[in-house]
Amino acid sequence: MRKPLIALLALLLVLLVPGTALAKTRTDRVISDPRILESSGLAPSLLHDGVLWTHNDSGNPNQIYAIAKNGSTAAAVTIAGEDARDWEAITSWRDADGRALIAIGDIGDNNAKHDYVRIAIIREPENLTDMTVQPIRVLRLTYPGGPRDAEALLADPRTGRLYVVSKTLFGSEVFVVPTQVWPGGTGVSRITRMTRVARTGAALVTDGAFLPDGNMLLRGYGNQSVIAAPETAEDGSLDTLASQALPDQEQGESIAVVDDGAYALIGSEGEDQPVLRVRVPSYAVETAAPTSSSAETTSGTTETLRTLTGDDNRLRLLIGAGGAVVVMVVLFSAAIMLRPSHSRRRRR
C-alpha cells in the first residue's frame, strides 16, 4: 500500500473517531547515518545508557546499528550467517540469568509466500565497536494456517518468551514461539510452528513492544494502541485498552518502550529521520487474574478510545472513511467546476 493512501486513511480514522487526541511529542534524536535509510525497528540497549539498536529493511547488509543519544552511530554489528531477506523488527530483554539479549526478526513477507521466517538471537555486545557476532540461537518458524506478513517482534520481559504480531488491514493476530525452541537451546532450531494466541483490533501493525506490566504497545502508521497481555485472551481476542494518534512520519515503522513504560520512542524509514518521544496512552485495568468479566475492566476514557481499532466498529469505520474520501473528492470536483469561467478558458 502506498504511503500517501496509508496516511490519508490514518488521518480519516483520527478525524472520524471522537476522543482520539494526537500524542504530544518531541524529538529525542535524529538518525543521521547515511547507511540507515530504512530504519524498521528500535530496541533500547540494556547495557549502554541511552543507546538504541536499529536495522534496515530488506536488501541491506545484515547489520544492526547502535544509535547514541546525539543520533550518531556508535557501532555497526554484523550478524554472522544471517541474510537480511526482510528484517522488520528488533527487540531486547534479559534472560533468566540476567544476560542482555537482542533478537532480530526476519519476518517480513509482503506476499505471504515464505516457507518459514527466522529470528536470530544474540547477546548484546558489551563494547560499542564495529564487530561481527555469532547468534546464540536461530529460530525457524511457521504459522498455523500458512504464511503471514509481519513487522512486529516482541519479547515479554517477565518470561523471555517471543511473540510475533501479523500486519493486516483489518486487525492483527498474535503468535507465540513455543517454549521447546525458546527460551533455551543453542544453534539453529528445527522448523517449528508458532502457536496462535489471539486476534487484536490493532490494524497495519508495523512494530510493537511489551510494557512492564505485560500489556503490549503496538503501533501502526498513524496510531499506537495498548493491547491487553497475551494471557488475558478470551474467546480468541485481546482487548484494546487505549489508543492514540501518532504524529505524521514519512513511513513510521518502529517503536520502543522506555522510562519504565511511561514513554515510547517512534521512528521512521527515510533519510535523516527523527526519533520522536511520545507518552504511552493512559489506561486502567484490574490486576487480578483474568476472569470472564475481564474484558470490562477498562476505564470509561479508554473505552471511548477503543473505537479506533475495536473489532465491533471496524466495518463502520471503513465505511465512514470511504464515505469521507468520496465527500472530499466531490468537494474538490465542485470547487473546480465553480471557478470563474475565464479561469477554465483555454489559452489561445
UniProtKB/TrEMBL annotation:
The keyword Nucleus is assigned to this record: no
Keyword Transmembrane helix among record annotations: yes
Region (Disordered): 287-306
Transmembrane segments: 317-338
Keywords: Membrane, Signal, Transmembrane, Transmembrane helix
Signal peptide (from-to): 1-23
Entry protein name: WD40 repeat domain-containing protein
